[in-house]
Structure formats: C-alpha cells, structure tokens
Specification:
With 289 residues, the protein is an alpha+beta fold. The protein folds into three domains: 72 residues, wza like fold (2-Layer Sandwich); 84 residues, Outer membrane lipoprotein wza fold like (Roll); 85 residues, Outer membrane lipoprotein wza domain like (Outer membrane lipoprotein wza fold like, Roll). The protein has seven helices and 15 strands. The protein has a five-stranded mixed β-sheet. Strands 12-11-15-13-14 form a five-stranded mixed β-sheet. It has a three-stranded antiparallel β-sheet with strand order 2-1-5, with helices on one face. The N terminus is likely disordered.
Length: 289
C-alpha cells in the first residue's frame, strides 16, 4: 500500500510539474512574464546597476514601507512597481541632477514578498519563492515530498478579503490516491501550507500467528483486531480463534485489562471487529484439541 501511495505521489507531481507546459516553455514564458509583471514588495532584495555611476551598483533590500535608499538620490519609493517601472523611476531621478539618459537596470534577487510557507510532515519545510504560478503538488515537490508520518489532511491558510484569514482543508487521500486535481489548488503569495502530522503507534500480536511481533501503524487509520492479525500473516492451523485476548492498559488506572474476542464470530459478522489502541497486545492462544 505504501509503495502504491508513493508511486501515486510521484506520478501526480510529474503531471503537475510538466503536464501544463511543454518542456522549457515555462522557463521561457511563465517565468519571464512573472518577472515582467511582478510588483516589488517589502523585504525583496534588489540588485541595482547604473552604467554611468558605479557607486550605485549595489544590492538593497526594500523596507517595510516599500522604499529603498540610494546614494545621491536618497529615498525612493518602489513598492507596487514592476521592474521596468522601477528602472524608469530611478533613471528619471538621476537624470534630474547627475547624468543624461542613465542606463539603469533592476534585478530582483529575492522575492521575499512573493513567498509561501510550508510546515509539517514534509522533508524540507520552510519558505519558498513563487516564480510564476505554483500549485500544491509543485510546492510539495520542491520540499522533497511527504514524510512517513503524514496525516490525512493538508491546510492552506491565506489572507482573504478585508485581511480576514481563511483556512482551506485538502484531503490528501482524495488528492493523491484518487487523483482529484480539483484539490491541487493554485497558491497565492503569503499562503501558509501545513501538512498534518500523524502519530505512528505500535500494537503487538503474539501467539498462534504466522509472523508475531510489533506492528507500526498510523493512529488515524484505526487498525482493528482482524486487520492486525492479517498483517501478522493470519492465524496458524493450531490457533484457538474463539479465545483471542486483547491486553490493554487502562488509561485512568494504568492497570492491565483483558478484552476477550471470538474471531469466528467476527468473521461471520456476529460480533464487531474491535479497534485497537496504542500499546495493545493481541494474544492468539493455541488449541490443544
């Protein structure tokens, strides 16, 4: 099941990354259009170059109010401007006092105001720049994929209208296993994506089963008695299926309690298949007649 899960992830990520654009076209079209249309924001790192004035060749970070400070001309408001508009504005200010027709270039080295955050059960959580459009699977791919303790859901927190934060919930089984691409939503700047973390628990199966020992399962999957025995290889020919015992510590007292179960009745549908809890010990006795 796990192998199938990760194969599905790999296939969907490849489709998300390359399905919408022919190879190389995204870099030539999507990224160039993004750089042209991107609006400079606070904390962006700009590299300024002026051919006629080498003292203005420097890197400068945009302040919270959207401005930068340059030698000779002082404070310059660039917040909300495109790269081309910023070049024209700096050139116009220089032309007023210092040089005719200055050749100015602005290169955005870091898109700090156009980043998304990723935390939780991924291999490389952190902040990621959005160069062009980006969807959920592209972001997960950049982070190296999911970890083994990934939970059932993914959450996207984003700023809605009037500054009110909204949270979107994405079911990972529906997105990854079922391939529901409607859930592979496009991200927006300053989104915070959280991949839920599931708890790995252990239950133990001993006695007359083919592969006795510890089983590691996700807490959210709620493994049942029959499922645990099946994962342990099933019962042996000498198992006494009518006298299975589940040993469990009482949450309040810490004392061991025993829960009896009849596998024959469970198989026939005459009794419910009890869910197991963390630390449960299932014992299948041997039949001597």
């Amino acid at each position: 099941m796990r192998k199938t899960f990760y194969l599905a992830i790999s296939w969907l990520m490849m489709a998300a990354l390359f399905g919408a654009w022919p190879a190389g076209l995204l870099a030539q079209t999507g990224q160039e259009a993004f750089i042209r249309e991107y609006r400079i924001g606070s904390k962006d790192l700009l590299e300024i170059k002026v051919v006629e004035l080498p003292e203005l060749n420097l890197a400068v970070r945009v302040s919270e109010d959207g401005s930068i400070t340059l030698p000779l001309i002082g404070r310059v408001e660039l917040g909300g401007m495109t790269k081309d508009a910023a070049e024209r504005k700096i050139a116009a200010l220089l032309a007023e006092k210092y040089v005719n027709n200055p050749q100015v270039s602005v290169f955005i080295k870091e898109y700090q105001s156009n980043r998304v955050g990723l935390i939780g059960a991924v291999k490389t959580p952190g902040m990621y720049e959005m160069i062009g459009s980006m969807n959920l699977l592209e972001l997960i791919s950049k982070a190296g994929g999911f970890t083994d303790n990934t939970g059932n859901d993914l959450y996207v927190a984003r700023e809605g209208k009037d500054g009110i934060q909204v949270k979107l919930t994405i079911n990972l089984d529906d997105l990854i296993i079922n391939g529901n691409q409607n859930l592979n939503i496009p991200l927006q700047p300053r989104d915070i994506v959280t991949v839920s973390v599931d708890k790995i628990i252990q239950v133990y199966v001993w006695g007359e089963v083919k592969n006795p020992g510890a089983l590691s399962v996700k807490l959210s999957k709620k493994i049942t008695l029959m499922q645990a025995i099946a994962q342990a290889g099933g019962t042996t020919a000498t198992a006494k299926k009518s006298a299975v015992v589940i040993k469990r510590k009482d949450e309040k007292t810490g004392k061991e309690i025993q829960i009896k179960a009849n596998l024959n009745d469970i198989i026939k549908g005459k009794a419910p298949d009890p869910p197991l809890k963390e630390g449960d010990v299932v014992y299948v006795p041997e039949s001597f007649w």
